[in-house]
Amino acid sequence: MIHLDHVTKEFAPKRGLFDVSFTVEPGMVFGFIGPNGAGKSTAIRQLMGLIQADTGRATIGGFDCWNQSEEVKRLVGYLPGEINLPGDFTGEQVLQLMQKLHHSSPQRQQELLNRFPFETKTKIRKMSKGMKQKLALVGCFMKDAPVYLLDEPTSGLDPLMQEHFLDLIDIERQRGKAILMSSHHFPEMEKSCDRAALIKEGRIIVEADIHELVRSSRKQYTIEFGLEAEAEQFALQIGSQRLQKQVSFVTGHELTLNQIIHLLTAYDVRTIQSSADDLEHVFLHYYGEEESS
After folding, report:
1. 184-189: which pairs have CB atoms within 8 A and are 24 or more residues apart?
2. Is CATH 3.30.2350 what the domain over 218-276 is classified as, yes or no?
């Protein structure tokens, strides 16, 4: 449904998109992860037909995103990273305008307002960041489109509203929607995405099933020994650092976890602690590897 095929759009060296390809099928949530300036928003603008690729092709529903942008926009619910709405409009006026433009259902709008409640009679210029984000989310999803392009969708939302957003994403996935979402909020991406791509300086450095990404990351462990001498001996044995009775190490290099466990049977081990096995560690792991290579 969403397809980027070897797309390049260069603004400056290491700024833009460089030979980027990925596909998002119906019923899939695809996460785009990377720091500011990595190219996430550029890819989404490419799909919206807001910028033209130097080379390659972007399509949604089989329509060319640049040459057939009108057809593409009919299929897409778009949430930009920066919410710019007329300051003297009220939230109610903005939603009325969107309802007319998209011929959306009043019932759908009310369901979304129940999920993301805010004072609709407040003028945009008086709204907080969170209120503007809720307004934008309601406006985006009330279109009930087959495709959603979401750029930092939970920016400014409190934890409760973030959970409501994740519930909505799960519902839309089950309804067969194709969703591309960029975000810096790692727990949100891990909970909601089926696949993810890590992008740096305009290039995808890894793309995989979200759970495979997490499982394949190196894990850090800290072991506390009964005696400091044992900790020192074990640290020398595996070539790691020691702090008093504790030794920390990372699996995935010279020794596997099974090998470490076998070695530990000869020692008086008091505790073993592992680092959180989450997407943020994967992100730091891959970016660390890229910077050291």
Report:
1. 184/33, 184/35, 184/152, 185/154, 186/33, 186/278, 186/279, 186/280, 186/283, 187/278, 187/279, 188/154, 188/162, 189/31, 189/33, 189/279
2. no
Q: What is the CATH number of domain 2-210?
A: 3.40.50.300
Rounded CA gap, 1 and 14, in Å?
Answer: 28
Is the pLDDT at 291 greater than 80, yes or no?
no
SS3 content of the chain, % helix, strand, coil (to 5): 40, 30, 30
Q: What is the pTM of this model?
A: 0.78
pLDDT category of residue 22 using cuts at 50, 70 and 90: very high
CA-to-CA distance for 251 and 220, rounded, in angstroms? Answer: 7
171 contact partners, CB below 8 Å, separation of at least 6: none
Place of tokens 């920016």: 155
Q: For 31-35, what is the mean pLDDT? A: 85
Q: In the prediction, which pLDDT does 281 show?
A: 64
